[in-house]
């Protein structure tokens, strides 16, 4: 009897050890990690969960509200993100600053699906550093029950009739950019008089502005708390789905259109995982889920074809080519950047 008990406990020990070993092996797989830095509200959360499930890679996921916030955090070092999703002009700046790794697109199997309109762009002319994620425009979302005038010019944001019913983007490039367009200037100008005029305009507008916001604008406009808001197109799509009184307009003076692309940060500790993540996000079924969840436009033609035909011709998602003629992409301001910083500081501190 005693002997049987001994054998039994021996077998038990072996079994426990085996389970522990298998557990360790499994644990090793779960130790694969990836640190991602993305815009707020810019992914379907289920997509992230599915990536972890499919690959066993644990994702540490943080968000930012503007390109400038992201840049400061990465530039200051110590954040050790592997992947980030900046916009065009910020990608140029990060390349210039040596903050990005080259991406071997031969390792991103789905890279071939990216449309040609989204490749060879000035911010990454040889497609060495970035893989397109989404694109869009800057425009005005407005509540048709509250706004009685036509919304076809940026001038409406200076109409005292809508005092304290206007939300502006708390993002220097965007708010200064649309003001420059309103005044008939390029949104990449380095001309001090033009920038000064834009600053003056924004200060003049301040008493009419209810708040400078970024992601919070969605809840506020959906709840009917404002009449007009400067927003990014996909956020407008998201809001319009939730509140049918909302509409989107792109003013006749022109606007900014932009590209947000996935990049791998210099010295990334998880380069292979970063490539896997970028490839996953570019897989048509996954890209479609993201597009449908966040409302932005896909650079993958195959994904666009899968969308509801109404969406495919919606101004907020896929505006017609003719409209682009007086639109501009932000470029890296380089030595002119301090001029924009000065304008923005003056606007923010003005009473
Ligand atoms: C979504 C952020 C949109 C990115 N909250 C604009 N480039």
Helix percent reads 40-55%
List low-confidence stretches: 14-29
C-alpha Rg (nearest Å):
24 Å
What spatial form do the alpha-carbon principal axes imply?
globular
Average per-residue pLDDT, rounded, comes to 93
List all distinct small molecules, including ions and cofactors, that are bound in this structure: pentane-1,5-diamine
By DSSP (H or I, 4+ residues per run), the number of helices equals: 13
Q: What portion of residues belong to β-strands?
A: 15-25%
Termini, distance in Å? 90 Å
Order of helices and strands: HEHEHEHEEHHEHEHEEHHHHH
Question: Biggest sheet, open or closed, and with what strands and sense?
Answer: 9 strands, mixed
Structural class: alpha/beta
The tally of strands reads 9
Question: Overview of this structure, please?
Answer:
The chain is of the alpha/beta class and 351 residues long. It is built from 13 helices and 9 strands. Strands 1, 2, 3, 4, 5, 6, 7, 8 and 9 form a 9-stranded mixed β-sheet that branches. The protein is globular and about 85 Å long. The site of pentane-1,5-diamine (N2P) has 10 residues, from strand 9.
